[in-house]
C-alpha cells in the first residue's frame, strides 16, 4: 500500500486511574514494518529539527510528551500540524519535505520509520527536493 498524503493517526488510549497507556503495532496502527525508532529531546528553545525529505522512508511522528509543530510540504502544498497529544501523531510519506518547530520545553518527539538509517536517503536542499519530487512522483 502506498501513502501519498500526510495523514493524522490516532493511537489507542487505554484510560486507567493508575495512568493512561497507548501503543502502536506495525502493519496495524502504522501501515508499515518498523525498521527503526528514534526520538528527539532536550531541544533548546527556538531550535528546529528536520528541514529535509527522505527519498524512500515513510515515518510516523508522535509527541511522547510536550508538543511541537510539524511543517510539511508534499510537492507544492504546505501544511502545518500541531502535535501535542501523546496518542495523536502523523504519518509522513516518503518524498515529503518536513520541519519540526515550536518545541515546548521537555518535549520528546518519537519517530518510527520503515527503513534503517541511511544518509544517502536524505534530500537536504529544498530545490533538489522539488526536482526529485517531480522526477519520482
Ligand atoms: P538528522 O536526521 O539530520 O536530524 P534532524 O532531521 O532531526 O535535524 O540527524 C542528525 C544526526 O543524527 C545525523 O548526523 C545523522 C544521525 N542519525 C543517525 O545516526 N541515525 C538516525 O536514525 C537518525 C535519524 C539520525
Keywords:
5-stranded antiparallel β-sheet, 137 residues, single chain, Jelly Rolls, binds thymidine-5'-diphosphate, mainly beta, 1 helix
How does this structure look, described?
- The structure is a single chain.
- The chain has 137 residues and is mostly beta strands.
- It has a single domain (7-136), classed as Sandwich (Jelly Rolls), CATH 2.60.120.10.
- 8% of the residues lie in helices and 43% in strands.
- The protein contains one helix and twelve strands, in the order E-E-E-E-E-E-E-E-E-E-E-E-H.
- The protein has one helix at residues 126-136, and strands at residues 7-10, 13-14, 21-22, 36-41, 49-54, 59-65, 68-74, 77-83, 88-92, 97-101, 108-113, 122-123.
- The strands form three sheets. Strands 1-9-6-11-4 form a five-stranded antiparallel sheet, with no helix packed on it.
- Strand 7 and strand 8 form a beta hairpin.
- The longest helix has 11 residues, at 126-136.
- The two termini are 15 Å apart.
- The mean pLDDT is 96.
- The protein binds thymidine-5'-diphosphate (TYD).
- Thymidine-5'-diphosphate (TYD) is lined by residues 36, 38, 40, 49-50, 52, 117.
- The site of thymidine-5'-diphosphate (TYD) has 7 residues, from strand 4 and strand 5.
Amino acid at each position: 500500500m502506498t501513502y501519498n498524503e500526510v495523514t493524522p493517526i490516532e493511537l489507542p488510549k487505554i484510560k486507567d486511574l493508575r495512568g493512561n497507556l497507548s501503543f502502536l503495532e506495525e502493519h496495524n496502527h502504522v501501515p508499515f514494518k518498523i525498521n527503526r525508532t528514534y526520538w528527539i529531546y532536550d531541544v533548546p528553545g527556538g531550535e528546529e529539527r528536520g528541514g529535509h525529505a527522505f527519498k524512500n522512508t515513510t515515518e510516523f511522528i508522535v509527541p511522547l510528551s510536550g508538543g511541537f509543530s510539524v511543517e510539511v510540504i508534499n510537492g507544492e502544498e504546505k501544511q502545518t500540524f500541531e502535535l501535542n497529544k501523546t496518542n495523536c501523531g502523523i504519518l509522513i510519506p516518503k518524498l515529503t519535505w518536513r520541519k519540526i518547530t515550536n518545541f515546548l520545553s521537555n518535549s520528546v518527539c518519537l519517530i518510527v520509520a520503515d527503513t534503517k538509517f541511511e544518509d544517502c536517503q536524505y534530500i537536504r536542499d529544498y530545490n533538489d527536493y522539488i526536482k526529485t519530487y517531480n522526477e519520482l512522483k
